[in-house]
Design brief:
alpha+beta; two-stranded antiparallel ribbon; elongated
Length: 392
């Protein structure tokens, strides 16, 4: 009676988790479909275990065990796809085939329930450990690891439970009715075995939630047209880099960039051509910058590059390299072929200076570069002696 009640409760939990994961199918997060099918497999297997002695043994022993194991494999495949790895379907299918052969042999060839428990427990322990290692090895960068550690920890805990069950049954005397009696140990082991999927599904829901939050944050922090960092997020990262610069004693420079005659590009090639130029320029800059450099779109055709650990001469060299690459960059599309150039203004941060003041000095250098003929990079140091009228 206790076994039946436990299986019924766990089936209900699995059904609830299936509804929750199913509601996330529209999120298009990789792995959700496999996690849904994993819970469906458990919902098929658990009632069959509860109906042992009522339905044919083939359904309640080989079929139920293989369906439950198949659910675990689907969960592994979901984790692999979620983390951007290959599920290796052929290997998973082969392992399930080996398990099927073992269960069928030790049921129809030599009926040995004790050995079946050892084999099934070892199989679950191995795959739960594999799930834990997969998650721990491939936690996405720049994500809070808590949800991943929790899910991997649950997998390892359940793997331990299955391993203990397999060892105890393997070392027990010859099989007999007492081995499967409703003892405390068997009740605990049954509980562990049945709550694996609901608990692991809770972990996957937490990981999905983390992925969706990261996607939403990424969308909020990126310019929708070019993929460059938005101005708001650029300001936030710039202030963080100022704090680091003080703590580490590093220089910090900025390049403010404006694409020359961009209105003419739009007038000549249309807005589709102008948008393509912006996207291709962003790609060019991303491919040229170092890890740790911060590149954002300030608005329109104006961009900024923050260069941690870089003084004025270093920033000028980087700006000149970008200017040269842009001047040689031909952008082609249905609108034709477009050539563009850029002008840049460089300034190096003075400790305790505000971000607004730093950007203003870089803007002043940019303005000097534009009135000097464009396709030019000037620094605030070089342009500080020039008196330029304010733009209207």
């Amino acid at each position: 009676m206790l076994t039946t009640s436990l299986l019924a409760i766990t089936s209900l939990l699995s059904f609830m988790m299936l509804l929750i994961v199913g509601s996330l199918l529209r999120s298009r997060v990789a792995g959700v479909r496999e996690w849904c099918f994993a819970n469906v497999a458990v919902l098929i297997a658990l009632p069959l275990f509860a109906l042992r002695g009522i339905v044919p043994d083939f359904l309640s022993i080989p079929f139920a065990n293989l369906t439950l194991a198949g659910g675990l494999l689907l969960y592994y495949a979901g984790c692999a796809r979620f983390l951007g790895r290959s599920p290796h379907w052929h290997a998973l299918g082969a392992s399930l085939g080996v398990l099927a052969a073992a269960i069928l042999f030790w049921h129809y060839g030599i009926d040995n329930p004790q050995l079946r428990v050892v084999i099934v427990s070892a199989y679950h322990a191995i795959f739960l450990t594999a799930i834990a290692l997969l998650i721990l090895r491939h936690i996405p960068p720049r994500r809070h690891p808590y949800n991943y550690w929790l899910t991997a920890g649950l997998a390892l805990a359940f793997a331990t439970g299955h391993a203990v069950r397999g060892i105890v049954f393997g070392l027990a005397p010859a099989p007999g009715p007492a081995l499967f009696a409703p003892t405390l140990f068997n009740t605990v082991m049954l509980t562990i075995g049945t709550i694996v999927m609901p608990a692991m599904t809770m972990g996957c829901v937490l990981m999905i939630h983390d992925a969706m939050l990261a996607t939403a944050e990424e969308a909020a922090n990126r310019d929708y047209l070019t993929g460059a960092i938005s101005r708001k997020h650029f300001d936030l990262l710039a202030r963080q880099e100022m704090v680091r610069a003080v703590a580490r004693g590093w220089p910090l420079s900025i390049i403010v960039i404006d694409l020359d005659h961009f209105k003419l590009i739009n007038d000549t090639h249309g807005h589709a051509g102008g948008d393509t130029v912006l996207r291709e320029f962003v790609k060019l800059v991303r491919d040229s910058l170092r890890e740790g450099d911060v590149f954002g779109r300030l608005g329109g055709e104006e961009f900024a590059v923050l260069l941690p650990g870089t003084d004025t001469p270093g920033a000028i060299r980087i700006a000149e390299r970008l200017r040269t690459q842009a001047s040689r960059h031909l952008v082609a599309g249905t609108f034709g072929v477009c050539h563009y150039t850029l002008s840049g203004g460089v300034a190096t941060w003075l400790e305790h200076e505000s971000l607004e003041s730093l950007c203003m000095r870089a803007d002043r250098a940019l303005y000097a570069a534009k009135i000097s003929g464009r396709n030019l990079v000037l620094s605030d140091v070089l342009s500080s002696d020039e008196t330029a009228p304010e733009a209207g």
